[in-house]
Specification:
The complex is a heterodimer. Chain A is about 25% helix and about 25% strand. Chain A is of the alpha+beta class. Chain B has 2 domains: about 70 residues, Ubiquitin-like (UB roll); about 60 residues, Orthogonal Bundle (DNA polymerase, domain 1). The chains are: A alpha+beta, B alpha+beta. At the A-B interface, α1 and α16 of A face α2, α3, α4 and α5 of B.
């Protein structure tokens, strides 16, 4: 049977419907909500990293002008978390990081709330602290969570112990035997990377109200259903009592993929009966950001002289800060990046999320994939040097292809990375990889590959076909800036119903209207919400064609939806308008709507390979090839990027122009991560970078146009064969810049960010700040 | 005694603490939320408005210093039905993402192009030194701006 609509009409450069208001300053983000009737809240945060709270007295603060309510740990006793419930809403008896909330105040004005926060009496007895993972894993280290064994386990399978919040492991094949072979070269490397702040321009913000016995949370989040369930859990109320709505979100990048400020405002709304606004100041946002975590990585590979990797052994330490958070989940993704890219004969990976007395970390665009790809690609170039093979040739021979095994034994489908490499060199043949330019600067070029995934999982959609033949799409999807809700989803729905995307109304996220959804992130929106939307459209189409079949006296199979009409196949003009069919339906079956759902299909891993993993195999792998040229000033250590180009696997491009925007923006975020964005943690356990003066975001003058080609046609379960295109552009930027800078300088580049002082230290042969003995030691003592 | 000024063409008065930043007065008292409070330190440019026609970061301006001035915010650029050429170019090139930086971008570039109708790419980038964007990676913003002076006369389209 041929399709009853032409899905390829989904491919177009649909403009964004939200651009006009955003350009006129008329869009109301969460930070813009409210008015004179709203109370303003401020958090009192700890200014020590590890302490016992000996006194917390709010009585004087409660009497301050304008103060309406104060909440503390007693108001929210529940613990939450991902995998482990280890995280209190307020520090209760113990402070575990600098900036941890102790109390929250609601007052008539923000100034009054802040003044009252200062009037709260807080006294501590300081406790020993661990600020680095090396300290946290040292013998007799103080435990960040002495009661770690008592916590509720929300997901089974992770190995936990003391300051190790979670461990995920992979064991496929006999790595010991591989390393013992007498025909292999063993290559070993250690890598260390710092944190990265998302700096979404809209800080985390919420306005909460208590309405008709329920909590209404209007918030800047990527994951409304997570906010709903976590807030209900910590408040000890039924999930049904929490209603979450989300307006336009002023940037997320993963920061808003978890519940954050919502419980505080919600508790205050309940106490006061008023709407309460809570917005992080920029300083709070800088200092308590759920950053891309710092990490220490050790990789060892056994490689034959032909470039066959017969064994790989890797240890990754991820700093989760004071609470497990997303890092517990993200331990999973080490396997799929360090064990991606290349064919491996055998593999052993240990990934540990480590507690420290530092601000908790979180998810950030491509998460640990970004630094694992940096480490892996630097390691790969070191392998090439050790066995004397050209780095491009090595990659072309060794990248995973059709029927090759991933780290956990999943079987990849399709040759994707190989042809993508060919596509890159066909346009940009490899010449010199290093040189000295006439002006004395050091030239370097590198080409890298990357493997990441589309985070799928449950999504729900409802499509209502209106009397005027417009359609309303109801999902819990949020527009965070990437354009998915403005472009790809209306394009998909329109193509499935034979109407124009301008006739698709996209309802903003509302948990009272839309079914459950994991949230907008991980490249999942087009794939998961898109697939649920397609399913809802199929439901609508079945009803519509059944009615039309009666009206037009032909079988539904003979009908096709196109340009707002129902036509008999191959006979344009033979049918009638969708509008007329909908109106007729009102007299036969009633108004037409449909519902659809999607969830991860669950690609199998090899049994017994993976332990402590939230995802044993990846449902939708996604690949990238990046290439760049740099010039390094040997005196100042400044890096100029001379060219940057990439080939990205998108499955199928629905909106080429929008994908261009994601590539340009994602690569530039990666440039910031690789070169300038540095976070240092001082002896008090606080970040030194408290604002834009000290945290160096890329400016217009620091960037260049990114050249790109899209690779289409790789297998994907996404609607029309799509894969998410917004997350992946950042994946191998630090890897590519790192490898190019290594080629330019002929030095062992193994840290990020590559700031000018780091590069001059490398060039002068000075120690560049990383002491990674503890990672290698762990490996030796951990061969389970 | 209040501070009197013209705001988007209308006489207005501010009776609060004269040390209040113009940004907070605009957002909290006049409920003009187009100027965004992003860095609060004058680096990001998301709060740029005009004082007597000159772009200023409103987060660093105390209202008390504005007696008798003419203040224009993003809400005062055109009206709900009309876009200026910079805004139109941003739509035509599909450059908007989260949108938080764009009110400031529009203010900076509209003013810059008035005095510099045919800038080079590098000059546009230099003009954006005080406007940070976290989403777009800038280059497509520059593409949109460069499209504006391709008219035969070399003038900014109006």
């Amino acid at each position: 049977m041929t399709e009853s609509m032409d899905k390829t009409t989904a491919v177009m450069n649909l403009p964004r419907r939200d651009a006009r208001d955003k350009l006129q300053g008329r869009t109301k983000y969460t930070v813009d909500a409210g008015g004179s009737d709203v109370l303003h809240a401020a958090l009192l945060r700890s200014d020590v990293a590890s302490a016992r709270i000996t006194r917390l007295d709010t009585s004087a603060a409660l009497k301050m002008p304008g103060v309406q309510a104060i909440a503390t740990a007693a108001d929210a006793p529940g613990l939450h978390g991902l995998g482990i419930a280890d995280h209190p809403v307020f520090a209760d008896k113990v402070v575990r990081y600098h900036g941890e909330p102790l109390a929250v105040i609601a007052a008539e004005t923000l100034a009054q709330a802040r003044a009252a926060a200062k009037a709260i009496i807080i006294e501590y007895a300081e406790l020993p602290k661990v600020l680095t993972m090396a300290e946290a894993l040292s013998q007799d280290a103080p435990l960040v969570h002495p009661d770690w064994e008592d916590y509720e386990i929300l997901f089974e399978g992770g190995n936990r112990s003391g300051n190790i919040a979670w461990q995920a492991t992979v064991d496929r094949g006999d790595t010991d035997a591989a390393f013992a072979r007498d025909d292999v070269t063993i290559v070993e490397g250690s890598y260390q990377v710092g944190r990265q702040n998302h700096v979404s321009f809209e800080p985390r913000a919420v306005v909460a109200s208590f309405e008709d016995g329920r909590y209404h949370i209007h918030t800047s989040t990527q994951a409304p259903w997570t906010v709903k369930s976590v807030t209900a859990k910590v408040l000890g109320v039924p999930e049904a009592a929490v209603h979450v709505t989300v307006p336009a979100v002023g940037g997320g990048f993963g920061l808003k993929f978890d519940c954050s400020l919502e419980p505080y405002a919600t508790i205050l709304a309940r106490k006061t009966g008023r709407s309460v606004s809570l917005v992080n100041s920029r300083k709070e946002e800088m200092m308590t950001c759920l950053c891309r975590e710092n990490a220490d990585i050790h990789i060892r590979s056994a490689v034959t002289k032909n470039g066959e990797i017969v064994g790989r052994d890797a240890t990754v330490l991820m700093d989760c800060g004071a609470y497990g958070g997303e890092q517990v989940f993200l331990t999973t993704m080490t396997a799929h990046t360090l064990g991606g890219n290349y064919k491996l004969g055998s593999v052993r990976i240990r990934t540990k999320a480590v507690y420290t007395n530092t601000p908790p970390n979180g998810a950030f665009r491509a998460c640990n994939g970004v630094y694992n790809t940096f480490a892996l690609e630097r390691h790969t170039d070191e392998i090439c040097a050790a066995i004397g093979m050209d780095p491009f040739e090595f990659r072309r021979r060794t990248v995973v292809g059709d029927q090759d095994l991933g780290a956990t034994g999943q079987v990849f489908e399709g040759n994707v990375l190989g042809p993508m490499l060919d596509q890159m060199v066909a346009k940009h043949p490899i010449g010199k990889r290093s040189d000295t330019l006439p002006d004395g600067r050091l030239y370097g070029r590198a080409t890298t590959v990357g493997t990441w995934f589309i985070f799928v999982g449950p999504s729900a959609a409802t499509v209502i076909l209106n009397a005027d033949a417009s359609a309303t799409l109801v999902t819990a999807g949020v527009e965070i800036g990437s354009g998915t809700m403005m472009q790809s989803l209306p394009q998909i729905v329109a193509a499935n119903l034979g109407i124009h995307p301008d006739a698709v109304i996209v309802k903003t996220a509302d948990t009272d209207a839309a079914g459950r959804d994991l949230g907008v992130g991980g490249g999942r929106t087009t794939v998961s919400i898109g697939a649920a939307s397609e399913a809802a459209c199929a439901d609508v189409r079945d009803k519509l064609l059944e009615v039309a079949s009666g009206l037009l006296q032909t079988k539904p199979d003979n009908l096709v939806l196109t340009a707002g009409r129902v036509e008999m196949k191959g006979r344009p003009g033979s049918g009638t308008t969708i509008r007329q069919v909908v109106q007729h339906a009102e007299t036969t079956i009633g108004p037409i709507s449909g519902s659809g759902a999607f969830t991860a299909p669950g690609v199998p891993a090899m049994p017994g390979c993976a332990a402590g993993h939230f995802i044993d195999a990846i449902d939708v792998p996604v690949f990238a090839v990046h290439d760049c040229e740099v010039a390094v000033d040997p005196v100042t250590g400044h890096v100029e990027i001379l060219s940057y180009r990439l080939v990205q696997d998108v499955g199928r491009a629905l909106n080429h122009r929008a994908i261009h925007g994601q590539i340009q923006g994602g690569v530039v975020q990666g440039i910031g991560y690789a070169l300038t964005e540095e976070i240092t943690i001082n002896k008090n356990g606080a970040f030194d970078q408290t604002g834009f003066e000290s945290y160096h975001l890329p400016l217009a003058g620091d960037v260049l146009p990114i050249e790109f080609e899209l690779y289409e046609g790789a297998p994907s379960i996404g609607p029309l064969g799509t894969k998410g295109a917004g997350e992946v552009p950042i994946l191998n930027v630090a890897a590519t810049l790192g490898c190019a800078i290594a080629n330019a300088t002929d030095k062992k580049v193994n840290t990020l960010p590559l700031t000018p002082p780091r590069i001059t230290a490398l060039l002068e042969g000075r120690q560049n700040g990383s002491n990674l003995g503890h990672v290698a030691r762990l490996r030796g003592g951990d061969k389970r | 005694m209040g501070v009197d000024f013209t705001l988007n063409g209308k006489p207005r008065s501010f009776a609060g603490d004269p040390r209040t930043s113009l940004l907070h007065a605009l957002r909290d008292d006049f409920r003009l939320t187009g100027a965004k409070d992003v860095c609060g330190e004058g680096f990001c440019g998301a709060c740029i408005i005009y004082v007597d026609g000159e772009p200023k970061t409103s987060c660093l301006l105390p209202v008390g210093a504005l007696q008798g001035t003419e203040i224009t915010t993003i809400e005062g650029i055109g009206n709900v039905d009309t876009l200026n050429p910079v805004q139109q170019a941003f739509i035509d090139f599909d450059v908007v993402q989260c949108g938080m930086c764009f009110p400031g971008m529009v203010m900076t570039l509209t003013h810059y192009l008035k005095d510099n109708p045919r800038p080079s790419r590098a000059e546009v980038k230099a003009a954006l030194t005080g406007n940070i964007c976290r989403c777009t990676g800038y280059e497509r913003i520059i593409d949109a701006v460069m499209s504006l002076h391709n008219s035969a006369s070399g003038e900014v389209r109006t």
